[in-house]
Specification:
Layout lengths: L9 H4 L14 E8 L3 H11 L6 H16 L12 E7 L1 H7 L9 H4 L1 H4 L1 H4 L22 E7 L2 H17 L3 E10 L21 E2 L12 E2 L61 H11 L5 E3 L5 E2 L17 E3 L3
Parallel strand pairs: 5-6, 8-9
Antiparallel strand pairs: 1-3, 1-4, 2-3, 7-9
Length: 329
């Protein structure tokens, strides 16, 4: 299903949406894990941080301008235009401190947390909560995560310093330790640690953004944002309309009780999943090099791509619906 653009007033809503949903597209990003002191100081911290939060409108327009500069032949927009962005995520524990009377409306997937749902998710053995690293040691959850992103290392440090000054002014504690993410240096720039080209599968959000793969269409905004139609036609954040099967006359079924809608202030918000995974890229590459002859195909879990970044275009050696990658010769 694709929601027509006219159903989404993007111009009116982008200023109320945090820009990370649009895609920061920065070379440097940092996650700062925050523990509030109490309800009143948490509210004061959020109020002071709010003017620094980058909106979807800002990010979308900056990215468009940056792309226009690159299209004129500049290999890098650095030195021409730069920006730093700040966003914040609230965990269920943090939100319950700020808005304790409204937590009943939020789904159990969010309020229970991943540690409580470890058996459902499959987090056992080496992946069990007891083995998680700080700040999630033993399944603990910070109240909030401040996300900063910038084009340069100087920009990320300046944005981090501003956020930390606000935290200190309101008695918030920074939990160990901040998580940094940086674009890899040449010759691996633009590729993740398995050697595949990174960032090529960003979906388009109908009425807001376009897909990074031209012609691949858009996904209903309710799959990303609260308060919009999703792919099934339901409004995200509201209980879906129950489907009642036909029954004989005289036996009208009782409609199941729906979950309460999320608070009105949750509109234009999103749910974020933070999971830290260990990737053994060298082990994967060594194993593939030992066991596969050049030109063979190895199955992947999601998409077709060349090992090294290009798209696989050779004839399949299996059913066409099976995703594969081709090993380096």
């Amino acid at each position: 299903m694709t929601v027509p653009a006219q159903q989404v007033d993007a111009e009116a809503n982008l200023s109320d949406i945090q820009g990370g949903l649009i895609g920061f597209n920065k070379d440097h990003q940092r996650l700062i894990f925050v523990q509030f002191q109490d309800q009143s100081t948490a509210a004061a911290l959020l109020a002071e941080l709010k003017p620094l939060l980058a909106s979807g409108w800002e990010v979308l327009n900056f990215n468009a301008l940056y792309g226009e500069i690159l299209s004129r032949g500049n290999k890098s927009g650095l030195g021409i235009i730069e920006s730093s962005w700040t966003n914040i995520w609230l965990s269920a524990t943090g939100l319950s401190l700020v808005a304790p009377t409204e937590m009943a409306a939020f789904p159990a997937d969010f309020t229970q947390g991943m540690a409580a749902r470890a058996a459902i998710i499959g987090d056992s053995g080496k992946s069990a909560p007891d083995a998680w690293t700080a700040p999630n040691t033993g399944g603990s959850v910070p109240h909030a995560v401040i996300v900063v992103a910038a084009d340069s290392e100087a920009g990320i440090e300046a944005a981090s310093s501003r956020a930390r000054q606000i935290m200190a002014a309101h008695g918030a504690t920074e939990l160990p330790s901040a998580q940094d993410g940086n674009v890899r240096p040449e010759p691996m720039r633009g590729k993740e640690h398995f050697g595949f080209k990174d960032g090529i599968s960003q979906p388009g959000i109908a009425g807001f953004t376009e897909s990074s793969k031209p012609g691949s269409g858009s996904i209903a905004p309710g799959e990303f944002l609260i308060g919009y139609p999703d792919e099934d036609g339901n409004i995200s954040g509201n209980a879906p309309t129950p489907v009642i099967p036909p029954v004989p006359d005289g036996y009208p079924p009782a409609l199941p009780a729906g979950a309460p809608p999320l608070p009105a202030w949750a509109r234009n918000g999103s749910f974020v999943v933070y999971r830290r995974l260990r990737q053994t890229s060298q082990r994967f590459i060594s194993s593939a090099s030992r066991t596969l002859e050049p030109g063979n195909w190895v199955r992947t879990s999601s998409r077709r791509s060349w090992w090294g970044g290009g798209q696989a275009a050779l004839p399949w050696k299996a059913h066409p619906s099976t995703p594969w990658i081709r090993t380096r010769e």
